[in-house]
Amino acid sequence: MKKILLVEDDPNLGLLLQDYLQLKGKYEVVLAKDGEEGLELFNKESFDLCILDVMMPKKDGFSLGKDIRRINPVIPIIFATAKTMIEDKSEAFNLGGDDYITKPFRIEELLLRINALLKRVSNQESKQEEQSKFQIGNYIFDYTTQVIKKDDFQQKVSTKEAELLRLLCLKKNNVLTREEALLSIWHDDNYFNGRSMDVFLSKLRKYLKDDPKVEIINVHGKGYKLIVN
Questions:
Q1: Percent above pLDDT 70 for the chain
Q2: pLDDT at residue 92 above 80?
Q3: Do 181 and 197 form a contact (C-beta atoms < 8 A)?
Q4: What was the pLDDT predicted at 85?
Q5: In what order do the strands lie in the sheet with 77-81?
Q6: SS3 assignment, position 177
Q7: pTM as predicted
Q8: What percentage of residues in the chain have a pLDDT greater than 90?
Q9: Which among 145, 148, 153 has a CA at the least distance from the CA of 135?
Q10: What is the DSSP string of 122-152?
Q11: Of 81, 76, 77, nearest to 101 (Cα)?
């Protein structure tokens, strides 16, 4: 059963949405009454999708969305608000929101949007799981066997190195954020895990150094990029 974090300061609407999504959508829905409680719950529990009201006391939905994005760069977020200004919609998507619904809305429409978002995420995850072999310039990386090959060269890599290289391959020529890598592999983006990841990156650079078309670069303030020319 997929788990949804619903953050809504209107208690009547919050309970109505929670009951409907649990009954009709067959989702587990955890309700928070304001942004601070929502962030606290997000830090404690694991969710598949977030629905955030924008106008809330203590911490508004946009601020909460920004905090959630720092913790998890990929979880689907739907913003719900009575605002109709294009600037508000623009801010929602600039903060990393996946969808935006304007109040008042039909609950059936919200459920359709949730279903579509979760289906898209599931399809993306399935495609990524299916791919186990990657061409990196003149190298072939087999994620399943954890081996990098090139001509007579063959390098067995550790599990963490394989997971990190796979993420870089899936984002080839695009930025893999530091937070995304740490949370995906270590499930915690603390300082010590970050230092460990730096060591693994150095090793991966060493394994791939004989092909001048391949490079793993640091993107200042963001993360890393596997460049293949």
A1: 94
A2: no
A3: yes
A4: 65
A5: 28-32, 3-7, 49-53, 77-81, 99-102
A6: strand
A7: 0.58
A8: 68
A9: 148
A10: HHHHHHHHH--EEEETTEEEETTTTEEEETT
A11: 81
